[in-house]
Batch of 3 targets.
Target 1
Amino acid sequence: MNADTRRGLGPRWLAPLLALFPAVLACIDVGNRDIGFHVATGRAIDLLGAVPRTNVLSYTNPDHPWLLHQWVPAYLFHRVDATFGAAGLVALKALVVFATFTFLWLALRRRATTWGGATLWFVLAASAAFPRFLVRPFIFSMLGLAIFLWGLTFAPAVGARLRDWRPFLIITAAAATLTAGLHAGFVYLWIVALAWAAGVGVDVVLPRPDRDPVRWRRAGLVAAWLAGMAAASALLLTLVNPYGVEVLLLPFRFSTDAWFHTHLVEYRPPPFLPALFPGLWGSLVLGAVALAGSALLRARRGTLRGAHVFGLLALGAYSWLVLKHQRIVYPYALVAAFVAAPWTDDLLGLLRGRARRVAVAVAVALAVALGGWTLHLWATHGSPGLGLDERQHPTRILDFVESQDLPEPSFVSDGWSGAWLWRFYPARRVFIDNRLEAYPFAFYKGVYQSIRYAEPGWREKLDSYGVQTAVLKYGTPGEINFLEGRPSVRQRMLEDEDWRLVYWDDQGEIFVRRDALPPGCTRCADTRHFDPDRMEGSRPTVHLVQAEAEEILEKSGPSVRAYTALIMAHWIMGRRNQAVLVLDEALEAFPGSPELEAMRMRE
């Protein structure tokens, strides 16, 4: 499989200039739920002076084996956070994304010959991947994948001398080996390696007019290359990770489990929303068209070789994976651009002269338009900045827990457990969190989810772990559909005389056992008659709902839900003037709120 090493896409210094575009897209406030437990993991390493082998972040499963496959990035996140805070974490992420796309463009520069194909696929990759530009160890795996793809372009042609293999061997082996020690996402790189080796194998066995024995030597070198990378990666993993190569099985374990598909969004197929995900759906369509067109063209010319087999295997595998699990969109974007840009060049090569120049200009214009639309999505649907995304991070709730010194241990929704650990570990630990490898599967389903969905025995399970405080997110659409109208633990606790709803805002609510309530909790409310999760009164006592909403506004602080409850109470009791005054106050506090604006229209 001959590498296309023509250099027609400008000087090397252009790569970092173009990579500024995805780097800007990476400047999004920290909002993903995982970063908290990564920072806490690094903090635990500092405190213990060693890599934990058991689940030290949890009080429910402290002795359970923890296959910690990403401790090196976690420790880096901890040190950056301790020095620079959330702004430093965002800057680190942007720097890694910048380096990743720099190497991607360098790879495209060696594989593609027209600005149209390379630029369009570069922008498609950035547009598709930017929703996954998260502060997670995953970003280091993607940097390793981009370097690996760049290294593949140094593969020499059939008949090359052994010394000509050195750049290829050094770059790809180093990328694979180092990535293996950082994150289990290393397996995504191996999919590409195996597809490339298969393409070389096809080139070796295809009939040729000459009987050149050198091509068999090339196959042997590739086989040795695969074995060497595997051995070196396994050795490094054994040295840096207490569990060695076992951690590489984690992605397969999670991606093949139906339960995780049901309960975790990132293991579900991507939504078919081309306007919100133009890079993903555009690259899937364009990739299929480019593959079919280039294959037909090469077949007619008799030049269909192992390069197309490699592309078909690599793009086919990643397209299948991304259509099953939306979390794969980042590696898919890199591989799709690397594979499909030369195919697009094949199609542009059908044109000549002015027609070709026009086609290239159109492709570049499409890339610019897509880049502009992606920046619009980044500005309107993301949270551009260098801090915390307060829409997702429960800062006020955590502040309340800390200021009122609520009792331990706590049952915290898994979506907030990372933020909880980030703020409180080691003083407070979690019931459960999103480290899927750190808990028994039976605990997720038989204990945590059983409590979350208020299945029979939920009280006894909380009692068995001595839970005193419950910090709960509101129901998600998936959870509501799953319950089919049945009450969740939030409704059950509201009805239970042993629990007191002391705080709620627009993100979630806090319950505390009445007999464990701190005497100094001056800001603890006592909501009994209004359910802020379902936004309805739990009993037909409207005047009490009004009183509780006013108490929440005073003690928990302003929130759209509290204002809505108060306005509705006034309306139901016929106090239209008071309702209008409260609505005006609410719109002043939350200008542009869709819920409040809708109430203004109904008025």
Note: The radius of gyration is 28 Å.
Target 2
Amino acid sequence: MNYTSREVYEFISKQTHDLIVERKTCTVSGQPFAIFQSDLDFYTKISPTFDWRKFQIPTPTLCPEERLRRRLLFKNERKLFRSTCWLSGRSIITTHAPNKWFTVYGVQERRSDKRNPMDYGRNYNSEISFFEQYNDLYRSVPQIAMLNDNGVSSENIEYCQNVAYSKNCYLTTVAWKLENTYYSSNMAWWERLVDCFFTMESQHCYECTDSNHLYACFWLSYSYECQRCYFWQNLIGCKDCIWCVNLSNKQFYIFNEQYTKEEYGKEKERILLILRTNPAQLKQKFNDFVSKQVHKATSTNNAINTYGSNLYNAQNAIMSYNIQNARDTKYCIFGDTITDAMDLTVGWELELCYESNVPDHSYKTCFSVFCRSCTNVLYSEMCHHCQDCFGCVGLRNKQYCILNKQYTKEEYEMLVATIITHMQNTWERWQFFPFRVAPYDYNISTVMDYFSLTSWQAKESWYTRYDQVEEINIPEWIKLISADTLPLDSTMISNDIIHDAIVCEISQRPFRILKSELEFYKKWWLPFPRKHPDIRFEERIKRMPSKHLYLRTCDYSGETMLSVYPIWEPFPVYNEESFNKIFYS
């Protein structure tokens, strides 16, 4: 696991004129990390006042990497289990493994008036730690099988986790305002995206990552405002390009060489024919080409005073990744329209939030998980349209509640002040939920995508694991077809394949093909997939650089810079000024 080095903190401090006021040692990893003056200013800004007393949020005891790891333990985006709704008895698909013994309701049942989360409210007990009491409440309130707004603001997204305002999406996670999108993650806006990752405001794309405003693009990364391009990286405003890297406002290019429109059309037809029959050959050819090309230190577009990567329309984004339309953020990953925030994992349209997962449309919501449209909510989970709540689970349209129990404003403020004081004495004050409260085992949660641990490593660190092999029950009427027996050319695949199950050539796990998905492959002459969606996701993640900054030297100017590429990478890396001077001038 990579931890931010002392030199990186000092470089950022110098470049931003943000003084390092404290150096600390992480209580979990033992790694040193820095506290900036801007951190203290932020903590003061969000520190709440209860019973006429201001409760100052202290500096964290965990380094940024361990804070992220802990938050990711509270997210499961792709591991699904078959279960039964405890309320209706109907069969459901859920993110909760059976070993956790949560009471799990289907999405419809969880939203219905048949359950009242206030029924689980309890009095605060000063003889017991707060997290112990919260954990007891958390495991009493029925959990939702899948987190989405299917049937409310969305339609036909039943098998999507953390998706909203969308239509006809399948096995897509962490997304909003999408249509006809499959097997994609961390997305927003527009339609027909397949196997994509953080491809924003785009249409008709396949295997694209970390890009914005694309149309009909395939196998693309770190690019903006492009159309009809295949196998490319770091392009801006390009059209009709194949196997290209580091171009701006070009058309009819192959391997960075200019073609006439007629020449390009003939060569494209030849290449697409190979793509339909031997895609591995084309991918390897492009990878060989990219490995010799200059790489930009970090991927940013319209970014000012930023030190992170995959930032679009961002200002003062420090050690943040995959964020657009953001200002004054630090240690945040995945978000859109974020203002003045720290330590967030996924967020949309929020301000002054801290140490939370998905505090969408919220203000001053801290130490919380999936609390949407909330104000001044602390230590809560799955609360929507609430304000002034502390330690609550599953509430809607509530105010002045503690552990799911209603109080008056005066009672609320006095009791919260008492709880915070008690948390200070038990070393719980202003810490995110401990990992023992997490609803998911280590290898089930999203943490495995970024901080992978072996079974032995996880258990050595006292993390739980779920190692039970789930039985796959395939109905007798569904035919199993080995993927390697199918043609790669999708146009040769019979439409009857949508009734069958395909056995992944890597994992041997079965998967299905949707009718609209098959139509997409055929329309764009794409190869037919032979790997399970999870395998494709894992390969996609491995292709992307880590969300980590290294101090290194620009291979063009010799200047010291920060990059997501370490010094041992074989290709040259340029800082933004040198890169733009050479390639986009």
Note: The first helix runs from residue 6 to 16.
Target 3
Amino acid sequence: GALQLGHYDGPWNPNEDFKKINAALRYSQGDAMDGLSVTGLYYQSSGGLITDQPARAITGGLIDRFGTLDPTDHSKSLRYSLSAHLDKPVGDNGRFSLSLYGIHATMTLWNNFTHYLDDPINGDQEAQNEHRDTFGGDAAYTLHSDFGAIMSDTKVGLQGRYDGVFVTRQHTKNRTSVLDYCTLEHADGTVTTYATVDTFCNADHARLLDLGGYIQNTTHWTDWLRTILGAREELYHATDHSDVTGTGGRGDQWLFQPKLSLAIGPFAKTELYVSWGRGFHSDDVRGVFGTLPGVGIPLAGGATPLLAATTGGEIGLRTDIIPRLHVHLAAFQQDFRSELTYNADSGQDEAGAPSRRRGIEISADYHPAPWLELNSDLAFTQSRYRTGDLAAYGLTDRYIAEAPKFTGSFGVLVNNLGRWSGGLQWRRLGPYPLVDGLALPESKGYSEFNFDIGYELPHGWRLAATVSNLLNSKDDAAAYYYATRLPGEAVGGIEDLQVHPLEPRAARFTLAKTF
């Protein structure tokens, strides 16, 4: 069992007064090959919420770098779950596994992204509420077979998940007042005002059922050749009904997902591999059935699918040919039927144009001494829309907003140097476009250093210190570009940079006892 109580104010103005409870309880018997475990989890939190703020409000002195134009923005969440996992051997060469789970979760976010753009009198704050019950499971049987020197493992399984969701949006003021009207901004910039229904601007009951049957075979043909073949058939069924518009819809979609991996080696402590496969992400059913305006793919771009297929491939190399140095190099490409894009007005993702990501990833770790490790992870990525008709999606070029060109980290770790341990890590998020279809404006990303040190005391005690953002970087952790309106500004607002800063240098000290 475990229990954690937390309170956090942070550098924000006003303080977040964020409180949370984490609890876990687990019963288990047996082992990983023949055993049972049952786990209960609980989480509850509530506190202030500092969203991204207009850069001009900071430079103009309306708020400081860690301030907010709407101090009543807030969040509240609750989640508890019960899960069970069973593993049993079947005969001499088989193994059966079963997992079952149930989750109840609620969340409310009070956000004011655009301030006075749509409602110049009471502001644009909205309460977004979600109540979700989830039930699911995974049953699988694995059979090990030997055909002479050939070793094979075949796994057959079925996964299922059901979600019952009630999601709403309300127009609020200062979080305490629910207004009796709503605003809706259209693509041409015009705003429509309409009356609420039972205080709701949107209120949808969605039912989602995801069933997936799969088979996977791993075969070691020789000590230097391994293949992994897999196939999965997905059935996704969804219904939605809007209490506000009275409209709804139902539908289902099948998606076949083949997968293949081939590994050759090791030769001279080096292995080559190639992988290819198909997967998916699901889209908001309110956009699929048209019950929530502005969430689906533009009509000129086609209908929004329940499942947006993604197909990807990767070729890579792993090597330990240099003593004490491990290197992993991979080149990849991923094609998405539709890109999920962020809508600041609704505070959620929407389905958009088809896209492609391709790049190179490099990771390495070097151990010049038993107690010292140098490691790095670098990823260089090109992200572009790949539709032939950019205008159908309201795009002028192929650049994807919020898609970084580079992410990376480098670390120096010390472990078991007598009683000492610790490390220094550098993290970097590279530049990325801020507007879909445009190379500029662009965020420069961020960079930060984090440091930690620990010392083992006698009798199971340990003393540790962690310093985050060691050099007190003033970079922004996130940046967006969209229209907002501050008091006194012209109707229609100003297209501007919206930023959320990295937290300043902070230290945490820990004294722990191990029994």
Note: The helical segments are 55-59, 285-288.
